[in-house]
Every structure is written in structure tokens, then in C-alpha cells.
Amino acid sequence: MKKRRSNFESLETRQLLAAGLESCVAADFGVAVPPSSDVFVVGDNRIGESRIAVGMGSDEPAIGYDIALPVLFNPAIDFERYDALQQHGDRIYAIDRNPYSQTSALFVFRPNDEGALEAIAEVPLDFFVERMIVDGDQVLLLGRASPIYYLTTAETTAETVTPGPRVDGTIAVTITLGEETNVVRQSLDGVFQDAHYDDGRLVLTSADYDYDLPDVAGIPPFTWLLRAFELSDAGLQETATIELPYVVQTLLRGNELFVVTSISSHFEDALPDEPAPDDSPDDASGTASRDIPSFRRESSLTRYRFTDDGITEVSSSSLGSGEFISLRVSEDATTAVAIRVDQAPFSQQSIVDLLSFSDDSTDVFETVAFDSFHPSILHADSDYLVLQDWNDDVVMIISLDQTVDLALEDRVHKIEFGVADVWSLSAARLGDSLVVALPWSTSRPADDSTDMRAPTQLIPGAVVTIDLPSAEVVARTSLEGGLLISQFFVIDAEEQRFGFEQYNPAAFTTSRSFQFGRLNANGLFESEHAFTLDEQAEIETTTDHLAVTTSDQLIIRRWSDFENPIAFPLGDPDPVTTAVNDTYSLPTLGEEFLLEVLANDQIVGWNGDAQIVELIGAPQGTEIVRWRSISVPVSALRGVDSLEFQYTIQSGTQTSTATVRIEVISVDRDQIDALVDAVVARAAEDLGVSVEEIERGSVRTDYEATPPIVHLTVSTVDDVAKYTVDLDGQIEQQSVEQRELLVELALRAVDGLGDSITTIHEGDDFWLELTAKDLRPDGDGVYAAFFDLVVPEDQLALTGRLTYADEFGPIGPSNITRARIDDLGAISSEVTHPGNGLQSVLRVHVIAMAAGEVMLLPNQADEVGHETLLRGINEEPPASSIRYVPLGLTILPALVDDPLDIDGDGKISAVDALRVINFLGRYGSLTIDDVLSSSGEVDANGESRVQFDFTNLRRMDVNRNGTITALDALVIINRLGQVTTPADAESIDEIKLVTQIGD
């Protein structure tokens, strides 16, 4: 699992993880610890020597998960200040964080006398660091302490769950670097939501939930606190506290604190113990014009000033109504820009207020309004504000200069890039230039054609250069391939040198690359070099080098020698995902085998979910199934004693390759059938019935046993018995139990009209229909049904097309290959109970491949949770209570007809050739296997994405070479040229012309 890339997020989202997780025990962080009792000395600068001496917290287990409470307004956090990798002067500070153990470690590096980078400090931490602040020799680290809290409900008694005391708080660790490394650990009340630091002063924003107060109209009762601290070698000392309504954003500039609060006018009038008032006016008819009240947000900006006596309010002003987006304040705290969206009915405008601050007042210098859905900030500084609307290729450049009174058309400029569906752009400023990353896209012909088969044009991604003073696009540099830029990194703004991280959204791999260069005199990007990045957590650039942290390393690439990176360990090396060799014993029977090769592989969770990405040297027909299994056809096993091939798995950016060895057991169907017949005869004798009264159940062969063993379940009306028999004929009875039949699942063959059939001709298609029946007296019906099925691949081919009966719909994951159905099921949506009647569940499309007798027997699905269910019963019925009815089918030889009669109308005409040509024009030249494979792709409703008439499809392969090409159409044309009617002559000439153009 990749670490959280906080600098890519625009809003901190917290999720409640209490459901399904075990209880976590944590130290009592709700009690503030005096700084003097929490001071530890970590030897000198020798790394690791005194690591155990750092007593971070109690001896109780560390907190396993971060649970933060739902809030009405999340603070607008500047995530660029949350980097876990920072450089200050010649020192590099890196936080190594483990999201599973919820622990961290601080590493500090600096150059030695020879100029080589070396570690000067390592501090292990027993919590997950979420904020790092560096000021000179001091490092302040902040984290949240929010263990899981279990609530007792009506269904959970005190005997089963004992709610523990609620413990919420903030962990603050102050580390002072020097001849000795001092560590001060403190526990602060309240879970911090936002933190701002400036020149020794820290302001924390926290939202405490009051469980004693009821919710008002669904809004949780919060108490928002702003707490100010002074930072020293002894840690944090609290100096002031402010209690406010819903805090949206805080900013600290020297002694000035700016706080944006937002509240709904409706909630403001509601009391905690009263329902929200319904003040909706009535319409002309005397009825309410709306059923729910309006909640209109009002935002305000309050300025505070720190003095020797504490903190005082300087001024407060309204920011207007609507959804507040962000406040940006200049470094000298003299000007600011506030952004909000006015969500008026049937219209929506973005409003930008340019603010100016005097000693005691806040004034609006100018207001800019324009139509917008929901703007995001691409770039903001003291000179310019650049906004992009949501899912739009338009940016607005707004000049923030308050020294002159500019006309609106001179202050606001709009630039359109002509790229559709742009979710998010990236930008960076380089002097007077702004570089913007555009993603690649596609476009259709300019005539607005609605034909989805019309060819599309690929528009490559690009770096667009904008001159900010004139707000004009001066250059556009196209990027090769389908790579997208995720973020810019400024290397040297004066030299207009920068880099950017790229990734390929269309590729399976999650690997990324980094490319750097500069703008030339014409504003075009000139690349100097590009290289692949390891799985990284944070990136930091300077004029000297690129620094990258992975899960266990700090990697430095100097621009002057970028091809020779230097790696430094961050703690112990992480385990790696490793594929492990597999050995299987498989028979030469008419089945395909699904190999679960990932079952014994070493897969590291935080690297990402492992998937199979490549097969090396695999026999023909071997395929990757759902990225996690390997399907091997039985045809690959015939004629060999063993075979080997390799597979590669990928987890994150890590890959590993292992070998699969298959020992082939030569056994045919007749041998297994003979063993099954012997077991049936033995079972009839044991159970005191005739052979005809024995109902054959599932047959499973364990080829891992020596010798291989066949497992067979047989049933009578009263009993169900399980037997095993080895290949030498030794039979053993495993169990016998009484049987109570509750449900029957059966297969029947039907044609396209749904009529039952018992015979089918070779090459024709039909449907296998699953039916269900409730066998209980006065039963209510079958609610859900699941089954497995294996078909002889030399006689039948499953196409993957699937339809459901009117009262049933898809449920759960399933897999249909050419010869196997795994865990296929359906669930009823019928409100009325169908009773004991026969219920049609679903149909699977099949093609008859070869003549002969076929016996098909559905089996119980083996996936956990895929159980057949009956109405009126709250648990799945026992497996022995389900009767699976087999299907016997006769496949007759193909009808003797003219192979050139494509549409089967009994005559050869120009229409037959046109059918082939139309198919080629739409799909191109395809093999029959390709078509079968594409038809197996289904949508969310279980319907095939591609529909074909398979009977006519096979007839299009006139020359029977397995591929539909222009040659098949020419064969028909040549026949028509020999014997034709005058009515076909003109059509033949047109067909020849079309064919020549197509060639």
C-alpha cells in the first residue's frame, strides 16, 4: 500500500473505521502530561546507540487506527505544508510512516566535511505523524490519538461489548537537535484538525463532539476551539484559547490570526432541544412551496492579534453567503483574497473578494464575480490567483494588484484550452510564466458526427506556457505517449527550470516517471532527462538535487549526476512481495483447470494488491483469469508427462516471477466413468436400493493424493452418502446421513424462443436454462440460486452470453470461461412468493461443437457466501437437501447445406456476400475464437457487450479456416459470377468495387 500523498489532496477526508475492527488499546491521551515529566535524552548524534532509551509513551499497544469524527465543515488545509520530506538549509528531514502499525520515525541528514550526506539523528515514534514543522534546530511533530470507540446498541449487550472510556487527543513531540537530541512528548486535549505555525507560535484548530447534546436537524453539536501555544525546548506552552462556531479556515501571519467561520442561518435560529423551524413560505395555492427548509451559509472573517496580555479581537467582517472555498493572506498580512461560490437557484457564481487590512479594519478593495460551478485553486501568490472550474478546460487569471484601480476586463482574463472533460489541472509559476499541464484526450470529426464508429483523433498531453502579465498562451509543448502529469516541481524559478511527475493511467502498472528541463526563449519546454521513479511517498526538489522517499529509503539524485542516485535507509528494510514456485498434478480429462497460484505467494499488503501481469513460456490457450488465477486448458496436457512455465506478479511497483510445474496424470473419461459406475453399484448394495434409484451427485478427483482419489456423493430418496475410490478401484464409504430434500436445481436445453430441446446440430447455438423448484410442502419459493458447471470443451463451448429471468437479477462475482461456469448465481426481486412452481432463473449461451452424447450435471458453488436460499428460511439449506438434476443432450452432425448460404435462406445471393463485407467493415478481420472471447464480456447487468448470431457467424467463415476475411466474401462473389440472375448483376459489380476499395 502506498503511503498517503498528502500534497495531492485538496481536502482531508476522515472515515469512521469502527465497523468490523477489533478493539484497540491506547494510553490515556486525554490527560495532559506536564512537559517536565516527558523529557527524554537520546544520547548524542550517534545513530541507534540509544534508540531504546527513547521512552515514547506507555508500554501499552500503539493505536492501530485513526478515527476522526464527522464534521460539518472541514478546515481548508494547505497540504503543501504537510510534507513528510522537507529541506531546510543543508539538512534534510524525512518522516518514515507505517500506516499499519501506526508508528513513525524521524530521520535527519546533512552533509559531512567531505560533502557526503550522512544521518545525524534518528528518533522512533509510537504514533502516526501527520504534521512536521521545522524551525531552526527544533522539529515539532503532531499526530492524532483517536482509538476506536464501541457504542452499545439494542442488539449488543454489555456482556458481549464493554465500551471503554472515550480517549481523543493530539500527540505533540518536540525534538531539539544539538550536541544531544532532546525529545519532549506531550498529550493535548482535543483532536487537531488544522495546525499553523509562524515564528515560535502554534495555533491548533480542534472540533470536539459533545455526546450530551442532541443533533439539530442532523448537524452534530461541535465545539470548535482555537488554541495558541509557544514553542520552546521544553515543548509547547498554551497561551490562549478561543471558542468559536463552525471554523472553516485559520491562517497565522506573525502576530495576526485570521479565522473564517461559517454558519447556516437556519441552524442559527434552532435550539438544541427544539426541532428546526419550518419557515418556508406558502405558495399561492396555500400549500408549502417546499418540504425541506433552506440552509444558506453565511461566512465571516475575524482578525485576532497576539499581544503580551494574550489574544484580542481586532475586527470582524462578513464574507457574504454561499459556499466558502478558501482564504489566502499575503505574507505581510496587508492584503488577502477570499473565494466563495454563491449557490443561488438556477445559477451559480464564483465570487472573489480582494481584501485589504489596516490596523483595525478589513476592507473590500474589489469584488470579481463570474459564472462557475465549483472552482479549484491552480495557483495563488501575492500577484495572481489562477482558478479552474470543476471538470472544465477553462482557467481564470485574476490580478491581485491593489496598488492601482484596474477595470474588470484588465483584472480578469479567461483562457480556454480546448480539451474536453478535464477533471483537474496542475500548474506552477516560473517568474512571469505559468506552466499548466494538460492531459491527453480524444476528439471526433469536426462535423459533429454521432456515428460512434467514426475514428477518433488522439490529442496528446501538453505543457502550456502562459505569460501572466498579458494572460496569453505563448507556447504549447506536446508530450509523447499517453502519460499524464500529476504534479510540477520548481527547481529554479529564475532559470525557469522545473520537473514533473508522470504516470500512465491506461497501463496496469503503477510505476511513475520524473522528467525535468527548462523553458526556452520561445516558452517551449525542453526536456533534459527522464527516469523511472521507485514507489515514492514524498518528493522534494532544490536547485541542487531531487530527494525522494520510498517506504524504507531516502534517495538523492543530484541534477549534475542524476543517473547515479544515492540511497539512504529509513529504518529496517520492508519485506518484498515474492512469488513462490507451484507444483500441480493434473489429469488429461476434458476440463480446463484454474490454478490459484497466489495462494502461497508472499504478498506485502502496503505494496498494493498483487496481481498476475505476465505469463512466460505458457502453453497455448493458457490465460490469466481476473488477474489472480491461471486457466490451463486440458489440451495443453495431452501428449506430455509434465510441463513448466513462469508467471509474474506485480504489487505496487514491485514484481516477482515464479515457476509453475504441472505433473500430468494420464487418465481418460472412460476410466473415471467406470470408477463412478463401480461406486454407484457399491452404494446401491450398501443402501439397499437398486442402481436405478441412485442419484449421482458431485464428482471430484483429488490428483494431489497418491494415488489420485475420486470423491463421489450419491443420494437416494432417504439418504445421502459419500464415497472415495482410487484409480486402482479401492472403494471406501466416508459417511451416510438422512436426507430431506428442500430444493431442486435443474438444467434444460432451450432454443432462442425458450422451447425445450433434446437434440441440437453441430455448429448451432442454444441456451442452457437453470430452473429452481421449492420442494417443501406449501413452500414459498427459491430466493437465490448458485451453481458450478463443467462442460466438455471438445463438444460444447460457452460463449459468455448471459440473460436472467424477469424476476431474477445478478448477484456476487462469477466467472464463465469456454468450458466452465464458476459461482454463477441470481437473486429474486419478486415481491410475491412464487410458491412450489418451477422458476426459471437464468440462461447461458452455448455452441455445439462436435456430434455425440453429452451429460451435464450442475454442482454446488464453492465460493463462500454463494448459497442457494429459500424464502422463509433465514439460513442456507444443507448441501444434502439440494437435488441437482442432470441434463442429457444429443448433438447431431451438422446439416448438409451449401456453405455459401450465409443467411440460411436456401439460396446464394448478393446478400450473402454483403453480410460478410458488412461484418468486416464493422469489426475487421477476426478469428472465431476472438469473437467468442469478446462476446464473453458482460456489463453490470450481466448482458453481453457484443451480440452476434453465432449460426450465421460460423457460416461467414466460408472456407472454414477459422477466420472471417475478405477471402470469404470473394468465394461467394466468384460463385455468383459463374451462376447468377440479371437482378444480381448490378449488386455483384458494387460488391466487387467495395472489396477492391477494402483491399
Automatic annotation (TrEMBL):
One GO MF term: hydrolase activity, hydrolyzing O-glycosyl compounds
GO BP annotations listed: polysaccharide catabolic process
One Pfam family this sequence matches: Dockerin_1
Disordered, as annotated region: 269-293
InterPro entries: Dockerin_1_rpt, Dockerin_dom_sf
Acidic residues composition bias: residue spans: 270-282
Lineage: superkingdom: Bacteria
Signal peptide annotation: none
Protein name: Dockerin type I repeat protein
Protein source organism: Rubripirellula tenax
